[in-house]
Design a protein that fits this description.
single chain; 350 residues; mainly alpha; two-stranded antiparallel ribbon; globular
Length: 350
């Protein structure tokens, strides 16, 4: 009981720290980004009953804006007014939720290691890149908690064989797809985990995962079929002109720069391999599959780092694993060294 109380107090302190780092002078720092204005413009039109951005109506898929985040933002704007603070307050709140979910994922990945989930939550709370991109009003901030819930559901499904956890993961991943198409990469992760456990579960989990996007497609085809088909075709083909060689070169460059420019990512790549076997492959797949899909077609560094910002909890988990494993090793080595020193002292006295 005492340990639980201490852990709860520590997690609460971490959440307060994350809140301060994400809400302090939020409206003006960092400077406004053009994509934030796009979100606010779409939310304003939604409040007026129109699905529109500037002169483009009927569909916003042309601008890679899917409905879930825009609908959440429209709700926030209705409650708090049309302002940059309403947008950034929403994404900062999602980031704080992600810190708490990182703690829960850490408990599932390393259930026998008390300090790992707290270390992972703290790492995400203070990770500079995570702080910066959660202070921007980007829809990727909604993908972050959805990613963590998907990982949590898949990990519990594999360890317990309970189908309800797979249902949770499928529904959440499906909601992610109607937030941003980057979440499509998680379909492959889900499929691999289902194949490991029981491939027959995919017969119902697959359709469940696709229901949110299917509803979006169905509603769009019923109301604005021409606009939707044009936007969908443009979205799926605009980045497909690169040759295989160019894609591989861009992927290699992206990954090299990610590791070289951010020491947290470099350390986390070691840490993810240090996770217990039950969660190691799931964490690695959740990192590498999106990188593989995105990194072939778009830059992922500098101004384009936001494409991978929703994966940063995995970086925090990797860094925490290095810290906890390293501390355990250090304590063991110090104990061994202390034993040798005491042995030499005893021999000297005798």
């Amino acid at each position: 009981m005492k340990q639980t109380v201490v852990d709860t107090l520590l997690l609460t302190a971490i959440l307060f720290l994350a809140t301060y780092l994400r809400f302090h002078h939020l409206e003006t720092n960092p400077g406004w980004y053009s994509d934030e204005g796009t979100h606010l413009a779409i939310a304003r039109e939604l409040l007026n009953g129109r699905w529109q951005y500037l002169a483009i109506n009927q569909s916003t898929l042309l601008f890679a804006k899917l409905p879930l985040f825009e609908l959440l933002l429209a709700t926030a704007v209705r409650l708090f007014g049309l302002s940059m603070l309403a947008l950034r307050g929403l994404t900062a709140g999602l980031a704080i939720l992600s810190v708490g979910l990182t703690y829960l994922v850490g408990r599932v990945l390393m259930p026998q290691t008390r300090w790992f989930p707290l270390a992972a939550a703290l790492a995400l709370a203070i990770y500079p890149q995570a702080i910066l991109y959660s202070r921007f009003g980007f829809s990727y901030n909604l993908l972050t908690p959805l990613l963590l819930l998907t990982i949590l559901g898949l990990c519990q499904y594999r360890s317990s064989r309970q189908r309800r956890w797979l249902g949770v993961a499928a529904v959440v991943a499906g909601l992610g797809i109607v937030t941003d198409l980057a979440m499509v990469s998680l379909i492959f992760v889900c499929a691999l985990i289902i194949w490991q456990v029981n491939w027959r579960d995919g017969l119902w989990a697959g359709p469940l995962l696709l229901i949110p996007f299917g509803l979006y497609v169905g509603a769009s085809l019923l109301t604005t079929p021409d606009a939707f088909w044009f936007d969908l075709t443009y979205t799926l083909t605009r980045l497909s002109g690169r040759s295989i060689t160019d894609q591989l070169l861009l992927l290699g460059r992206n990954y090299t720069l990610l590791v070289a420019q951010d020491s947290w990512i470099a350390v986390s790549m070691i840490g993810l391999w240090l996770l217990p076997k039950n969660g190691r492959d799931l964490a690695l797949l959740s990192w590498f599959v999106p990188i593989l899909m995105l990194g072939r077609t778009v830059p992922l560094t500098e101004l384009s780092f936001y494409y991978v910002s929703w994966l940063l909890p995995l970086v925090a988990l990797g860094v925490a694993a290095v810290g906890v494993r390293g501390l355990d090793y250090l304590i063991q080595e110090m104990g061994r060294l202390w034993g040798q020193v005491m042995g030499l002292l005893v021999i000297g006295v005798l």
